[in-house]
From TrEMBL:
It comes from Acidomonas methanolica NBRC 104435. Residues 8-143 form the Endoribonuclease L-PSP/chorismate mutase-like domain. Pfam families: YjgF_endoribonc. This is Translation initiation inhibitor YjgF/endoribonuclease. It comes from the Bacteria.
Length: 154
């Protein structure tokens, strides 16, 4: 892929939101060596959750997938705030997804693909990453999805 990350975002019709401030006793990012860890980000759009509730309940899988995409955009906003330029991302190393869901829900991977597919669309092969996706009983603010990330940067 020869296009820049901002060009790819624009081609996808996407813009990064402003990086959200932490709401508790933690920092949004930690840079150690060439690894940048990004704390979990919620599906905030203009400061408001895109959806609330649980997958398998009030939240449909497609809405959950869209929330995962939005979470990734919020993760990338944190990356940009931390290092100034997304072109410094050499690799998306790992994404972690938390899916608030009912006990019967089993489509966790499909929901988290919203974030994973978008990472590949934005970064190409450097966006292919290791991943964990975990179902949980609840998330902050009743968010349906939360995504965290680990990036190799230069």
């Amino acid at each position: 892929m020869s296009a820049s990350v901002p060009d790819r975002l624009a081609a996808l019709g996407l813009t990064l939101p402003q990086a959200a401030a932490p709401v508790a006793t933690y920092v949004a990012t930690v840079l150690t060596g060439n690894l940048l860890v990004v704390s979990g980000q919620l599906p905030l759009e203009h400061g408001t959750l895109k959806a609330t509730g649980k997958l398998g309940g009030a939240v449909e899988p497609e809405t959950g997938k869209a929330c995962a995409q939005l979470c990734l955009l919020n993760v990338l906003a944190q990356v940009q705030a931390a290092i100034g330029d997304l072109s410094r991302v050499r690799r998306v190393v790992r994404l972690g997804g938390f899916i608030a869901c009912t006990p019967e829900f089993t489509q966790h991977a499909a929901v988290m693909n919203g974030a994973s597919d978008l990472a590949v669309a934005i970064f190409g092969d450097a966006g292919r990453h290791a991943r964990s996706t975990i179902g949980v009983p609840s998330l902050p603010l009743d968010a349906p999805v939360e995504v965290e990330g680990l990036f190799e940067v230069v």
